[in-house]
Write a structure and sequence with these properties.
Oligomer: single chain
Largest sheet: none
Structural class: mainly alpha
Number of helices: 5
CATH architecture: Up-down Bundle
Number of strands: 0
Shape: elongated
CATH class: Mainly Alpha
Amino acid sequence: MVWIALEERQETGNIMIDGDHAKIVEIINQLATAITTHQSKEVCGELLEQIIQSTKAHFARENRLMAELHYPKADLHNAEHTRLIGQSLDLKVWFDEASTESVMSVSLLHFLEDWWTRHIPTFDKELADFIAAQKP
């Protein structure tokens, strides 16, 4: 199931950033399939954990890149990363404690969709534009 389709407005033009996004969105879509086909809470939990770990790794790469390039909006972007990871960890706690019926709702997917469709075209696009402008 394709819950999130990366659209042109979500492309940043940076191969590393766009590649990471594609991998994470692929896992989100796997989670959407698992939820809508009523797979076990364990399967869904493993996919959610993969999303969180992949996102942490992606954010760490972006943070290193921003530091290396002395990106002027790095503090704001890093704060957004911290906020999003905090939300995802809160979501994981809810997931672990929730009943199977609650977990199988699409509210989890809506959170992930909102996260990815808002963060990419704003924060990540600005970063990618900055990176592109640094190349001679």
